[in-house]
Structures are given as structure tokens and as C-alpha cells.
């Protein structure tokens, strides 16, 4: 199920947060931060796949729209 925001998509240059759950041994996953940000959308590859980048020197990441939020 997708939210109404995801149907329209994001615009190039918009700032977003990336969902990237990382499990650390010995800590409760409930207390760990799962959202990383802020990233800038560089390109739109298709309706649901985007290229994002933390800053101009950082490596680009290709992610699905379900892992992004404004």
C-alpha cells in the first residue's frame, strides 16, 4: 500500500529522508535510528526509482520510492 504522496513522486532537487534500518548487536532495534538524511534527489530513473546524494562530494545512491519521505 502506498501513500498519496508516493503516487505523485518527488521532484529533482527536493530534500528527502532515507529509510535505512541498521541493526547493531546488543541494542534494541526499537531504539535505533532508521532514518538518515537529509539527501537531495539528483535524478529520477523511472516512476519509483530515484538517485539521491548527501552532498556534492558524496557517492550517489539508487533507491526505491518506498524508502524515501519528505
UniProtKB/TrEMBL annotation:
Residues 39-70 form the Integrase p58-like C-terminal domain. Pfam families: Integrase_p58_C. This is Integrase p58-like C-terminal domain-containing protein. It comes from Exocentrus adspersus. The lineage of its organism: Eukaryota, Metazoa, Ecdysozoa, Arthropoda, Hexapoda.
Amino acid at each position: 500500500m502506498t501513500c498519496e504522496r508516493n503516487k505523485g513522486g518527488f521532484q529533482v532537487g527536493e530534500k528527502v529522508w532515507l529509510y535505512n534500518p541498521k541493526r547493531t548487536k546488543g541494542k534494541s532495534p526499537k531504539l535505533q535510528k532508521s532514518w538518515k538524511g537529509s539527501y537531495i534527489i539528483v535524478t529520477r530513473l523511472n516512476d519509483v526509482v530515484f538517485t539521491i546524494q548527501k552532498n556534492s562530494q558524496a557517492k550517489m545512491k539508487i533507491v526505491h520510492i518506498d524508502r524515501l519521505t519528505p
